[in-house]
Specification:
heterodimer; A: alpha+beta; Arc Repressor Mutant, subunit A; 3-stranded antiparallel sheet; 3 helices; B: alpha+beta; Beta-Lactamase; Helix Hairpins; Heat Shock Protein 90; 3 domains; 5-stranded mixed sheet; 19% strand
């Protein structure tokens, strides 16, 4: 995706040739977003796929928001073209598009 | 008959039972008294007859012709007559049955009963004379002046019969009277001891779901009825509490649901204003509405979880759970939230396994730790401890937050309860986190304790039976 490269076997992420250091959780999150690149991924989906949390009524939404914020900081900071976008009230999407 | 009996009031049945049993006892006692008296009087009479027998035996003589005679008591006719009346009356007969001498109140009287041949000793029996006089007879063989005869002595049974008749009359009159008296007494006792029930019933009839404040009268807290009323009162108090809680819950839930709905409508109406044609601001409005809708559905999810908890009887699936591992996992999950506030989460954990439903236990821990993070200020420390305590497995979540005042400590686990009424959704949850945590733990047979001092922090302790 764009200038973002993900090597699944060694779990290494590079953007524009620069290695990005991600925690395992952040890596899983990124993979999940990449799998449905261009489509909106809801918090419920992320909770289910990344945290294996089926039950609602847990404080997981805040946790997801924090992780997304960190992931965005690591991947998008310093790049003109932002990849991770928040769709308010719906979820998150990974796509090549300057933030509106 | 059975149906009739069962349809009677308890009071009547008790009375009838009481009267019935006391009558049986009285009749039995009366019968025994009569029987014993009868026996006593007869043996008394037989003793007298033995005396008569010996007297006759010694006084009767035989003249030259071979006739038996009694010594005369002089020529006085009256005296002789008195003598005859006073007795002893007797009859001497030969073994073949012919009367040799007879003496009695009048010359024509005689015992209708035939002589009974007693082979040995005395025989006593009751008999009747020609003149319908009841007598008691004692007879035996004896030798008078060298001749073997049968001697019978008599005494009238008139007095004995009269005494027994009087006793019988007393019993016949007294027994029904005593029976009636005990029935009346039984009725009074039954009435007095059962009348509180009527009072209780009358009061209970007035108590409805709307007026659960009423309590039953407790006539005497030490007897059975008093205990019953006390138990009912305790039940009523619990019901009243539940109803109050339910009412408050409904009110709170409506309030909590109305707030996002109001926001939804406000945003929607604003977006539909004619001057708001700009696509960007429309998107903004839609996003805002979706966010509110999301909050709503989160809230409804949590409410549904608790509502199902109230109704469903589904038992948690208990298994051996690595308690320490679970606490570490929860810490791991929520650590990012603490980091955002520069808080640290330390753990001091023994290796403890516990029999629990893993998901429920995790839900409770997530809510408790999240609460600790949310209500602690920046930079403070949160401690998690797991250890064994006697037969229990214990996990403690300790924060250095503002603490909880004693008057809130009991209520803090109630749904929608917030210590600070002003602190609402802005600072996070809907006030259901602790309610859910408590439900999740109690569901598995454990409980949550709270120790807190305002200004010093709080300690939430999950206690699980091992």
């Amino acid at each position: 995706m764009a200038d973002l490269d993900v090597d699944l076997t060694v779990r290494r992420v590079t953007r524009a040739g620069r290695v990005i250091d991600l925690t395992p959780r952040e890596f899983d999150l990124l993979i999940q977003l990449l799998r449905s690149a261009g489509r909106i991924v809801s918090r419920e989906t992320l909770a289910r796929e990344v945290w294996q949390e089926i039950r609602r009524a847990t404080p997981l939404d805040n946790v997801i928001d924090v992780h997304i914020a960190r992931l965005r900081r690591k991947i998008d900071d310093g790049f003109a073209c932002r990849l991770i976008h928040t769709i308010r009230g719906v979820g998150f999407v990974l796509r090549e598009e300057p933030d509106t | 008959m059975r149906q009739w009996w069962q349809r009677r009031s308890l009071r009547l049945r008790l009375t009838l039972w009481y009267a019935f049993t006391s009558t049986i006892i009285l009749v039995a006692l009366g019968g025994m008294l009569f029987f014993v008296m009868h026996g006593r009087l007869l043996s008394e009479m037989d003793r007298h007859l033995r005396g008569d027998f010996e007297l006759v035996e010694s006084s009767v003589s035989r003249d030259e012709t071979g006739d038996f005679s009694r010594p005369s008591y002089g020529d006085d006719e009256d005296a002789a007559e008195r003598e005859k009346q006073a007795g002893p009356w007797f009859e001497i007969s030969s073994p073949s049955g012919s009367i040799l001498l007879r003496e009695g109140p009048s010359s024509d009287w005689k015992v209708l009963s035939p002589v009974r041949h007693f082979d040995a000793g005395f025989g006593a029996f009751s008999a009747e004379t020609e003149g319908h006089l009841h007598v008691r007879v004692l007879e035996n063989k004896t030798r008078l002046a060298g001749e073997l005869v049968i001697l019978r002595v008599f005494r009238p049974e008139t007095e004995l019969r009269q005494a027994l008749a009087e006793l019988g009359a007393v019993l016949a009159f007294g027994l029904p009277l005593a029976g009636a008296l005990s029935a009346a007494g039984g009725y009074v006792i039954a009435h007095r001891s059962l009348s509180p029930i009527s009072q209780i019933a009358a009061r209970a009839r007035q108590i409805t779901a709307e007026s659960l404040g009423g309590r039953l009268p407790v006539p005497n807290p030490y007897d059975e009825l008093g205990q019953l009323a006390t138990v009912f009162n305790a039940t009523l108090a619990r019901l009243e509490n539940s109803f109050a809680e339910l009412r408050r819950f409904t009110a709170d839930a409506s309030h909590e649901l109305r707030t996002p709905l109001t926001a939804l409508r406000a945003v929607g109406e604003a977006a539909l204003r004619p001057d708001a044609g700009d696509p960007k601001s429309l998107r903004e409005a839609l996003s805002s509405m979706l966010e509110e809708a999301r909050r709503l559905s989160d809230l409804v999810d949590a409410l549904l979880l608790l509502a199902r908890a109230d109704t469903s009887g589904v038992s948690p699936s208990l298994e051996q759970v690595d308690f320490t591992g679970l606490v570490n996992e929860v810490r791991e999950t929520l650590l990012v939230l603490a980091e955002e506030k520069n808080q640290q989460i330390e753990t001091m954990a023994e290796k403890v396994t516990v029999r629990a439903d893993r998901e429920l236990l995790r839900l409770a821990l997530l809510n408790l730790v999240h609460n600790a993070i949310r209500y602690s200020a920046e930079g403070l420390m949160i401690s998690l401890r797991v250890r064994r305590q006697e037969a229990n497995a214990v996990a403690e979540v300790i924060d250095q937050g503002p603490g909880i005042a004693p008057q809130h400590q009991q209520k803090i686990f109630e749904r929608f309860y917030r210590v600070d009424k002003a602190r609402s959704r802005a600072s996070g949850g809907a006030g259901l986190g602790l309610a859910i945590a408590r439900w999740a733990i109690e569901r598995q047979g454990g409980h949550i304790e709270l120790e807190s001092q305002p200004g010093r922090g709080s300690l939430f302790r999950i206690v699980m039976p091992k």
